[in-house]
Amino acid sequence: MADSAAKRQTDSGPDDLNVEVKKLKPDHENGRQEAESENILSAFKTSAVLNDSAREKTIFIHGKVTDQDAVVILEKTPIRQDSLDELFSGSSLKLEMRNDIYSTYRLQAPPHLNEIKTTVVCPATEKHVKKYQRQESFLVEETAEDYQSITLAYIQKQSFSMQWVYNILEKKAEADRIVYEDPDPQVGFVLLPDFKWDQKQVDDLYLLAIVHQRNIKSLRDLRSEHLPLLQNVFQKGKEQILQRYKLPASQLRVYLHYQPSYYHLHVHFTKLGYEAPGCGVERAHLLTDVIQNLQSDPRYYETRTLCFPLRADDGLLGKFKEAGKL
Ligand code: M7G
């Protein structure tokens, strides 16, 4: 535990970043609404563990909340530098073993320093359950023709609802979490924390820029006419993150997913040292590369073969197999 705290300290880089980490106070201290909600999980009935990871300290569970299918994700949160004093002074320490200069303990922290980030998807569709299930993946090579004949029809019928995205753009949900908005209908966007980030420390910073334009499904739809939009998101997104979190652009990984889960154009901003899920080369396309590719070929993403991973039971993988492409 001490090791990982020390590692985070060295990983977090320049001193000004450390100062900023300390400024990211728990919700109740920085004035953000911390809604005490009724425990909708008290009657949760587990039906299956979809995935878990001892290293990531996460577990993905499928079950029922009052007869509705639900997916619950539990994740132990990182230990914050600014909580160390309280952690050491306010906890009880139970000795497990001692040998020479070595000893191990179970430290029981005060409850507010021992929270579990909990995400609930309810009602969850079968596609949600599959999304979180541990599965083998296969790399697909999608030509421009494959996109037109296989992928497009599939995503138009089968993709996740985008209601949560429209709720953000229309300020019907998460309005108090918006970090920045450029309201221009053509080049504008909303920048806000991804729901994977609890905002307690910048070490795992994860923000999303969701564009106001509603007709761009993904990377595949991008043309040179979208350059002003992409440059605006890149420039202003970086400026806002520098201003608010004191993270310079050189500490950021700014990218799009292909395929995304949600077919409304959005850009991921994550801290470089944080291995965010889906940041591998087979799925993430750096925004700076996307911009340059469109500058050198206005139809780059319309015409190129694009590779991406699909999970074993993804319906789209089935379509590629049916077409003899795999
Ligand atoms: P994606 O590239 O479409 O797919 O990214 P992925 O989920 O497979 O990565 C969508 C991003 O939106 C992900 O990083 C999600 O964690 C995030 N996200 C999803 N939902 C439903 C919400 C939400 O309701 N609010 C916020 N703030 N982020 C979300």
Explain what the structure shows:
The chain contains eleven helices and 14 strands. Residues 1-23 and 25-33 have low confidence and may be disordered. It is globular, with a radius of gyration of 22 Å. It has 326 residues and is an alpha+beta fold. The protein has a six-stranded antiparallel beta sheet. It has a four-stranded antiparallel beta sheet with strand order 1-2-3-6, covered by helices on one side. The protein is 31% helix and 27% strand. The longest helix has 19 residues, at 227-245. The relative contact order is 0.13. Strand 2 (58-65) and strand 3 form a beta hairpin. The protein has helices at 2-11, 15-23, 27-30, 84-90, 126-132, 144-158, 163-169, 227-245, 287-296, 300-303, 315-322, and strands at residues 45-53, 58-65, 68-76, 92-99, 102-108, 116-121, 137-142, 180-182, 189-193, 206-211, 252-257, 266-271, 284-286, 306-311. 7N-methyl-8-hydroguanosine-5'-diphosphate is lined by residues 164, 174, 192, 194-196, 208, 257, 260-262, 278.
Throw out a few tags for this protein.
alpha+beta; 6-stranded antiparallel sheet; 326 residues; binds 7N-methyl-8-hydroguanosine-5'-diphosphate; globular; 4-stranded antiparallel sheet; disordered N terminus; 11 helices; single chain
